[in-house]
Amino acid sequence: MIDTLLSIYQSWPEWFQFLSFTVVKILAIVVPISLGVAYLTLAERKVIGFVQVRIGPNRVGPRGLLQPIADAVKLMFKEIIIPTGANRYLFLLAPVLTLGPALVAWAVVPFTDSMVLSNIDASLLFILAITSLGVYGVIIAGWASNSKYAFLGALRSSAQIVSYEIAMGFALVCVLMAAGSLNLVEIVEAQQGSVLHWFWIPLLPMFVVYFLSGLAETNRAPFDVAEGESEIVAGFHVEYSGMAFSIFFLAEYANMMLISLLTALMFLGGWLSPFEWILSDELLNGSGVVSLLLGDGIHWLLLKTCFFLFLFLWFRATFPRYRYDQIMRLGWKVFIPITIVWILVLGGLILAGVPPWFDAA
Amino acid sequence: MSLEQIIFYVFAAILVFSASMVITVRNPVHAALNLVLAFFASAALWLMLEAEFLAITLVLVYVGAVMVLFLFVVMMLDVNIAAIREGFIRYLPIGIVTALLIIAVMAMVVGGDYFQLDQMPAPTPHGADYSNTKELGMLLYTVYVYPFEIASVVLVVAIIAAIALTLRRRPGTKYQNIDAQVAARSVDRVRVVKMKSEERK
Question: Would you give the DSSP letter of residue A261?
């Protein structure tokens, strides 16, 4: 069976082999993301339910596990309403422009040192550039809806995204200074050693700034004034319904997962095992099941990502919404000065070659 | 035709198309969005020249930041297109002269003796380990460090000047004193009075 399939594969021309193999790899990334998004919504409702001493969804399927499927089916069968006076093409283009960058960024994200779709040299810069495109979907959605609420929501949201991108960019500058590379694989490899070697210690303020900026970038609570339902109904996507709305939803959750994964990669050692240096070398790098579990691997990356995703949900259940001027103040007057000061401090640390992070070079 | 050539012509066609749409489309928002597309296509062309740092920076700075602000302004202004078109015939001669001048200058630079194939041969493709970013950084911070510093100083001056020119404080505007808000303590504002419950009359 496998032999015949392999021989069919080898009979294809070389460019077609490459093309089909790449498409399979893309599917292997996109399908888990879509499933992850679906079950992240369930996790969100469950976690917030437990925080508020409720049970959360438990009717559809065993323990409510089929709830996301039911939601997806419901959204698919809803009518897509295009408001009168809306700009038809841009109205339908906007959700695509939001989802596109949210998925494209995953092309350069490494899952282990060899498991990466495209290991390009400037992957950090690429991610920064691609995620900065997501704001167009928001602006166009707000403008094309021909609705004042949507327009106000779009202005709020895009101003917030543009402001926090600066702090985020400076935090990334610190990461690439510490790692000496723009390549995400090399950034993780620069953190090898032990839990104490990971960048969360020398870059602790940047770690916090990056994660909170990510929270603001994805318009999540407590920075979700973009959709502040008490003031402007639902922000830029008020006029959307059915699949068009759910694509915005998909993009928001895919972005949450991307931010969590990047935080894990850049500050918590990515796929590196936290037992390095604590446990013996043969236990970590042996061939048994134990070393498969305790050694480096994608499961550590996923665990760390899940931790940050849980933080997203926990914050939403805990904190009240920020006021808009306070969000702007936090971004421009608190985060950006902190990042600039830390670039200078980090420069000093690297020049002095402070162990255990910067003594190698 | 090789694959590279096909990709080049596709992106070049998109670039020319969107650039001409920028100046012909009536709706200013559509024009701005076409400009975004033009930036994107030219970034793709730069990528093909192995200038990946410049290409990504073009997307990051122009598409991700500058054009967003452009769109903000264009969307919020209610631009009256008829008023803009009013002086079309009157300004046409000046426009034509300017356009001809620009074409002449570009023809001198691009078509002349400077950028022909023997002066500018196609760059030899580098290996996968070649880092355009590193090369650029090396040049920028060693050979061209003074021009680089001067350029950044000029930019800072421009930022400060722009803010100083547009910042105006109207008298009588109410501001929030954030420091006072943050420093507020409950004991200064709330007085807890302890008293015995009184009997109902």
Answer: H
Instruction: Identify each DSSP E strand in A209-284 by its residue range.
Output: none
Q: What is the token pair recorded at A245?
A: 């709305």
Q: What is the ipTM of this complex?
A: 0.80
Chain A interface includes B173 (CB < 8 A): no
Interface of B with A in 20-59 (CB under 8 A): 29, 33, 36, 52-53, 56-57, 59
pLDDT in tens, chain A (361 residues): 778 888 887 777 877 888 888 888 889 888 998 889 989 989 999 999 999 988 888 888 888 888 888 888 888 888 888 888 778 888 888 888 889 888 998 988 888 877 888 888 788 888 888 888 888 888 888 888 888 888 888 888 888 888 888 888 899 888 888 888 888 888 888 888 777 888 888 888 899 999 999 888 888 878 877 776 666 677 778 788 888 888 888 888 999 999 999 999 888 888 888 877 777 666 666 677 777 777 777 888 888 999 999 998 999 888 888 888 788 888 888 899 999 999 999 888 888 877 777 776 5
Q: Is A148 on the interface with B (CB under 8 A)?
A: no
For residue B2, count CB atoms less than 10 angstroms from its CB and return exposed for 0-12, middle for 13-18, buried for 19 or more: exposed
The structure's pTM equals: 0.85
User: Per-residue b/e over B129-157, b at no fewer than 16 CB within 10 Å?
Assistant: eebbbeeeeeeeeeeeeeeeeeeeeeeee
**Do A20 and A12 meet the contact criterion of CB atoms below 8 Å apart?**
yes
Among B140, B132, B122, residue whose Cα is nearest residue A120: B132
Using a 10 angstrom Cβ sphere, with 0-12 exposed, 13-18 middle and 19 or more buried, the burial of residue A329 is middle
Rounded CA-CA distance A310/A40 in Å is: 9
Contacts of B63 in chain A (CB under 8 A): 129, 132-133
Is the CB of B52 less than 8 angstroms away from the CB of A121?
A: yes
Tell whether A91 lies on the interface with B, counting CB pairs under 8 A: no
Contact status of B184 with chain A (Cβ, < 8 Å): no
